[in-house]
Amino acid sequence: MFGKIDLAKYPFSAEAAEYVRSRGLTLEDLASQELRPILAKAEERAKEAILRGRIPGWRSGEEEIEILSYPVAIMLMGFVGDQGAQRRFALAEAKRAYGFLREDSPERVLRIGEGTFGMRVRTAGGIRSDRGKFYEFEVHFADYLRDTASLRDGKWKLCNRALSGGWVGLTKEELARLLQEEVYRRILERVSSPPPGGPGPFEPVVSRLKGLAESAMARAEYIEAPKGLILEAMPPCMRSLYEGALSGRNLSHMGRFALTAFLAGAGLGEEEIIRVFQSSADFDGRKTRYQVEHIFGLRGSRIKYKPPKCDTMRTHGLCPGRDGCGGVRHPMAYYEHKLGLRRTRRPGGAETIKAPPTPVSPDGDG
Fold first, then answer.
1. I need a surface site. Which of 76, 240, 293, 330 has the fewest CB within 10 A?
2. Nearest alpha carbon to residue 241 among 252, 232, 230
3. Per-state percent for the chain, helix, strand, coil, to nearest 5
């Protein structure tokens, strides 16, 4: 059922793992000149994931290199140790898997769900969708709840699903999406436990990837920081949400709202804000645009929303702690203070923001 092309598509599968074991390669073998193309491909795999959030393809006839580069890339990312970069890598691999799965045969998708991840999944036995069509698959509700825990779209809530006898109906594309979560979780587990003894002969490659990851996280190079946004002046809560969005972490609904409203208040435009969320596992361009434009006051009530106050951020578990915030009560007040801006009130009651007469650093020092 699985040829070499399939193993290259799904290097996380049980079949691919068995194939790699059958090759009997050691770390010393992988460091040899003969197998240098495998190490080079693994480094490219990790590098592209860190910088661009994607996994490069392969040329026809290079399936062997593609298959073997996957566990090597995981080993390298484990030695890199940067959690943001590791999440970025895991998400890129998971999205790649989803792209293949949604186009593959139902039999192979079912095989991967059962054989690789031990999901309780089967071909559908009579569950109809809300449009009267039969679903292709059923998955046990416990597995469904585990794999949808981080999915924010309302359609994934169990109360909105067709449920019969403890089984949830799914289309092939929806099952592929749950398998994306399985791939993501498995890779994160593996990169969190690198082989003992250190990188050894792979130290030069690991060192390059570490420098790349540190630089990318420090300067937010996953997506170039929009002009006008001073990262150093952002309050800890918004900085955490911002970096989380860039690294592909799924933010809560309140987290996305708070970050969008803050970035809008900081002067970013709609397109710049939309790009911040592109790394999300569930990024939907059309839906994100609608939500951003709604917060900007371009849709719905036509009211431009402000970010939540600090008390509201704490209520929703979005405040990492007040230490160092100087007792401010609003994220925008923190940002303006760090930039050296001050509010003045016009005679009519409207507020304006004025810059100080002399330049200040992002930390507020003159």
1. 293
2. 252
3. 55, 5, 40
Please answer whether residues 139 and 269 qualify as being in contact, where contact means their C-beta atoms are separated by less than 8 angstroms: no
What is the rounded distance in angstroms from the CA atom of residue 153 to the CA atom of residue 62?
A: 38
> What DSSP state is assigned to residue 53?
S
What token pair was written down for 71? 């566990």
Beta partners for 122? 138
- Confidence class of residue 27 from pLDDT cuts 50, 70 and 90? confident
Bridging pattern class, strands 342-345 and 351-354: antiparallel
**Tokens 């929009």 belong to which residue?**
226
What are 226-264's pLDDT values in tens digits? 556 888 889 999 998 998 888 777 788 889 999 999 999
* Cut 0.70: pTM above it: no
Helix (H) or strand (E) holding 111: helix 106-111
Distance (Å, whole) CA 181 – CA 149: 10
Element housing 289 (H / E) = helix 285-295
Q: Tell the burial category of 159 from Cβ atoms under 10 Å away from its Cβ (0-12, 13-18, 19+).
A: exposed
- What residue ranges in 65-190 does DSSP mark as E strands? 121-123, 137-140, 163-164, 167-170
Is 56:44 a contact under the CB 8 Å cutoff? yes
205-222 pLDDT per residue, tens = 999 999 988 876 654 444
Contacts of 233 (CB under 8 A, 6+ apart): 335, 338, 339, 362, 363
Q: What's the sign of the alpha-carbon dihedral 347, 352, 357, 362?
A: positive
Rg (CA), the chain: 24
Q: Please, are residues 262 and 307 in contact by the beta-carbon 8 Å criterion?
A: yes
Which pLDDT value is given to residue 345? 40
* Mean pLDDT value across residues 329-354: 63
State whether residue 222 is helix, strand or coil.
coil
CA 198 to mean position of chain CA atoms: 27
Determine contact, residues 310/279, Cβ cutoff 8 Å: no
pLDDT of 78 above 90: yes
Higher pLDDT, 208 or 225: 208
Neighbours of 160 (CB within 10 A): 11
